[in-house]
Amino acid sequence: MNRTFAALVLSLMGWAGALVAQEQPVVVELYTSQGCSSCPPADDYFHKELANRDDVIALALHVDYWDYIGWKDSFANPAYTARQKNYARASGHRSVYTPQMIVNGKDHVVGTHPEKVEKLISRHSGQAGPVALDLSRQGNRIRIAATASRQQAMQVHVVRYKPEEKVSIKRGENAGRMVIYGNIVSDWKVAADWNGKAPLDMEMRVKGDAPVVVLIQGVDSGPILAAARLR
Question: What is the tally of structural domains in the chain?
Fold first, then answer.
């Protein structure tokens, strides 16, 4: 193979990697609580407009720090509160709040501003990332394969969620409301550390038929570099 042809092949491979990255969906994390009076409009927008989009992986993480004001969130997990606080520390913010949306682990926005959320989704959907990710499933096992264009400290996250659930809130600030929640995160695991030096190829067992999401994210609440989903 002469040098000119080799250079052309490498160039095409680079373009192929960029195209794979561009086609990956944008991850939108919603931090919310059943006990937060400001959250229902964001929950409604998230459920109706984001949860079923193919170009978006929408993940609702219910936090527990409003449980004390009269209603315990039935989906809340202190691990999700910790994840939100880690984002706040990484971005230099001194506090957390609901409803908050975080787009691709980078941009933070109030969840009741759909127009700002949509602009961020559009901005991220046109960006090529450094990681190409492929996710497949056979029975109760998933295979995760990825390649990176540069080395850096990353983690492989495996997420499960419930597509929809209706909750009748009896007490607290939202007493009397019936709220339909979408894409409620029910499990979140860090499955592996990866530095991108060699291709990633791993398998793991999963239970049930709930959707599976895999994220490749920089350590210490860094940006989400790649995402894939199996519904």
Answer: 1
User: Do 152 and 195 meet the contact criterion of CB atoms below 8 Å apart?
Assistant: yes
Mean pLDDT over 192-209 rounds to 97
Alpha helices in 92-190 (DSSP H): 114-125
Residue 2, exposed/middle/buried by CB under 10 A (0-12, 13-18, 19+)? Answer: exposed
What pLDDT does 128 receive?
79
The pair of structure tokens assigned to 160 is 């499960």
Assigned token pair, 119: 């602009």
Split at pLDDT 50, 70, 90, the class of 23 is low
Range of the domain at 67: 3-230
CA distance 152 to 143: 22
- Per the rule left: phi > 0, alpha: psi between -120 and 50, beta: everything else, 8 is alpha
CB contact burial 124-158 (16+ within 10 A = b; e otherwise): beeebbbbbbebeeeeeebebebbbeeeeebbbbb
